[in-house]
Amino acid sequence: MKCDPNGPREANIARKPLEIPLEQWVAFVDYRARPDKKAKAEQNTINRTHQTMPHTLGSKSIARLENEMEKQLGRSVTRVELFQASHTTSDGSFANEVARHNHEDLIIRSQGSSENEAFTSVFGKEHPGYVRGMGLGVVPTQIYGSSSSSSRRNEASGGTQAEINELRDTVQLLRQQVQENEQRFQQQLSILTQQLANQNQNIATNQVLAFRDIEPQAPTRILIIPKVKDGLSGLSKAEERYIKILGYLLYMAKVVANQEGLDDGFRIVINDGPNGYQLVYHLHIHLIGGRQMNWPPG
């Protein structure tokens, strides 16, 4: 039975369902016959004609549908799943092409962003106090959080991004420094190699002493790890490079001493101190005759 607000009062009362008490039904008929309620019903009828994407739930609410789906699936359902369930018929087909197209668009946009962002992209901004596709009673703060929470999340995200950018800049700077150090090392090694290519060729004293000016910012110490058990040196590649350069420097010092008419030899003053099982050496190469060369240069 259905109450017709525009029909005779007696006829509407006669349509009373058996399970409803008479006094309640009469009050309902009179309520529906009020001018303001009749005007609202007429406006709702007009509004329904403007709908381009009607749902297929009938009198069932979105909240009831969501509860049924969660019990059936054993988990929470998404907004996209609710949209599909509320706009398809019993055979799985969509109510119309508009609903089908919007559902496909939601799935595509959800892959590159959040569900909430996907709904905003497809349907536009939410109306105040309402969340599209979630039914009555669900407010934006339940889905999106409060504005203050969103602000805090944005601030935290901004701070995290700033830290990431700073770390990237630091890594880039370190890479440049490593590359520059490698270039300086190759430059030093190339100079030494060229000078030792012909042992019979005289090496000018000022060329040897100028070696200390090639890399003025070099560290003032070289770390040498002594041999450990089983005859392993324990040296890193970087330390092996410095020792190789040290060997060239010692050889050149001897050549200079010979060609300068000094005694055939030189002495090394070693300043060392314990550091676990490692020793740190600071070498001063004193050519006989008073000249001095330092290793590392600096």
UniProtKB/TrEMBL annotation:
The keyword Coiled coil applies. A motif (Histidine triad motif) lies at residues 282-286. The keyword Coiled coil applies. Keywords: Coiled coil. Residues 187-298 form the HIT domain. One of its GO terms (molecular function) is adenylylsulfatase activity. SUPFAM superfamilies: HIT-like (SSF54197). It comes from the Eukaryota. Residues 164-202 form a coiled coil. The active site is at 284 (tele-amp-histidine intermediate). This is Uncharacterized protein LOC120251895. It comes from Dioscorea cayennensis subsp. rotundata (White Guinea yam).
